Amino acid sequence: MLHVSESCNNNCYFCKDPLVDERPVEDFINYVKSASKSSKELIISAREPTLFKSLIELIGDSSKLFEGIEINTNGRMFAVKSFVDKFIPFREKLVFNVSLHASRRDIHDFLTRTDNSWIQATKGILNLKSSGFEVRINTVLTKCNYPDLKKLPLLLNKLGVESWKVLLFEPLGQGAENFFLLMPHHLILIENLNDIADSALSRKVSVEFKNIPFCFFDKKHLKTANIKITPQGAVKKNAEACKKCFFKDKCPGFYEDYFTHFRVSPEDVLKPVFFEEDGDK
Phi, psi at residue 151, to the nearest 5°? Predict the structure, then answer.
């Protein structure tokens, strides 16, 4: 993943991106030349990569080296159609992962701490789609937006988006500073996750969940939803019983900070999933 800018036009409560020095584009081009020797895909990220003044030049050079380029963005700059047009020469190589954290303006703008960010993001998505770009949506799940997320697939249908990633916020950076504002109780997560998955399924939106333990989902969604938990990022911890879980090799557990701040043990939160014994496999 290539981080290209320290600037952002949002100020999200959960931002975990580190500050980086904005270096000359030549430095990044040298990096992508080296990275292309071991990878066919490039992800361009940062606090907000569309604010990097040499982004088009970087994409132009990278498009000659990689089969695909993903750009993680809050989407606001794409509300300006002339800005979208600059990317059209590289359309076949580009995928835009746009952050959209609610179906409602007030919730999204609260989380980004930026007025009109929802309006600009949704307009940006429409502009990208109308120009033929592939768009996927990233949503950070928090205590502030979980009740609304079951409504988001309907909006994605209206925006013409079929791919959705729901990521539980990580207690890193500003996310660590705002832990109690953002972190839902695990029982609330369990109660609502399946409704979110059901909503996506009913609207024919492909959904991927990240950083949420497998045991928080109904078994029907463990078979149909794309669930990923990576050992990278915030430190995670398992319960002793997790050694018996069907997903023990895929699940590093839940945030260690959760157990510390909520004063519960992993055994209180994490329960092993079985398939063979109950005839579900």
Answer: -90, -15
Angle at the Cα of 147 from the Cα atoms of 168 and 172, rounded to 5 degrees = 25
Distances (CA, A) of 48 to 51, 213, 275: 6, 29, 43
Instruction: At 168, list the tokens.
Output: 């539980």
Residue with tokens 């029982």: 187
pTM for the complete prediction? 0.93
Strand 163-168 and strand 134-141: the pairing is parallel
Q: ∠ at Cα 142 (140, 144), nearest 5°?
A: 120
Question: Are residues 237 and 215 in contact, defined by beta-carbon separation less than 8 angstroms?
Answer: no
Q: How many residues does the chain have?
A: 281
Question: Could you identify the residue written with the tokens 């996750």?
Answer: 193
CA distance 150 to 192: 8
Exposed, middle or buried: residue 201 (CB in 10 Å: 0-12, 13-18, 19+)? middle
pLDDT per position as a tens digit, 55-91: 999 999 999 999 999 999 999 999 999 999 999 999 9
In angstroms, the first-to-last Cα distance of the chain is: 37
- Beta pairing class for 236-237 and 254-255: antiparallel
Q: What is the pLDDT of residues 31-56, one digit of tens each?
A: 888 888 888 999 998 889 999 989 99
Coil, strand or helix at 243: helix
Q: How far apart are CA 185 and CA 202, in angstroms?
A: 26
Name the burial class of residue 38, with classes exposed (0-12), middle (13-18) and buried (19+) by CB atoms within 10 angstroms of its CB. exposed
